[in-house]
Amino acid sequence: MTQKNIFRPVIGVTLDSEEGGGFSDSPWYAIRQNYMSCLEEVGAAPVALPHLAELAETYLDMIDGLVVTGGAFDVPPAMFGEEARTDTIRLKPARTTFEAAVLRGALERDMPVLGICGGHQLLAVLAGGTLVQHIPDEVQDALEHSVSKNTENAGGRSWATHPVAIEPDSRLAGVVGTTSQHVNSSHHQSVRTVKAPMRVTALAEDGIIEAIEHTQKSFAIGVQWHPEYKQTEGDIHLLSAFCAAAEAYHNRS
Questions:
Q1: What stretches in the chain show pLDDT beneath 50?
Q2: Active site members
Q3: Helix crossing, 118-126 with 93-108: angle to 10°?
Q4: Torsion of the alpha carbons at 15, 19, 25 and 26, rounded to the nearest 10
Q5: Which of 47, 110, 131, 170 is most buried by a 10 A CB count?
Q6: CB count, 10 Å around CB of 98?
C-alpha cells in the first residue's frame, strides 16, 4: 500500500550571486538553507531560480508563488530616479534585472509574492516607491538595523533586533495575528516612500518602513526583516499564509 502524495505548491526562490573567489573560481549562486527549509516546513516545494531574465515567464509558468530574497546587494538608485550618494551601495546588475522581470511578471499574474529584505525594497521600487540609500547617513537617531557592512555576514555576531508596530487594518496584521512584533534586522537601506496601490503596514520606532503590501493583489507583501529564521510565531504565520495563498493560486490557475 503506497501513501498518496500530498500536494505542495511550488515556490520560486531567487538567488544571490558572487563573482569568482571563495567557493569557486567562476561566478556562483548562493542562498542560505533556511530560505528553503522554512518553506518546506510550511508545506511548500521550494525551487531556486537562476538569473536568466529571458526565462522569467517560463519560470512563472512552473511556479505557484515567488519569494524575492535578501542578500549582499542593493537596489540601484537609478531605478528610483536618484544618483548614488554613498559608497556602501553594492550592485549586482544580473540579479536585479532578473528579479525585476520575474517580480513584475508575478504581479501581473496576481501570483502570491513575498519580498524579504532586498525583495521588500524592490517590491516598493517597482510600484513607484523610493529608498533610503544608507540609513546612518539619512535617518537621525536611527535604531541599529545592521551590525555589519555586509548585511548577510555579521561575522558571528548576533543580528540587530527591534520591535515593529503593524497597522491593525492591514493584511499583514491579520496574517501574523498581532499589531506588535519583535523582528531581526540586517539592512543598511530601507523603503523611504511608497506609491498607491502599495501601502505601508509596519514601522520601526525610528520611522523606518518595515513592511508594505499591495492593496490590489491577493497576496503581495514585503517585510524588511527575515521571517525565514522563524524567530516568532508571527513569522511562521506569515510563511504559512503565503504557502496557503500559493496553493489557492495553483487551484484557480
A1: 1
A2: 117, 226, 228
A3: 60
A4: 60
A5: 131
A6: 23
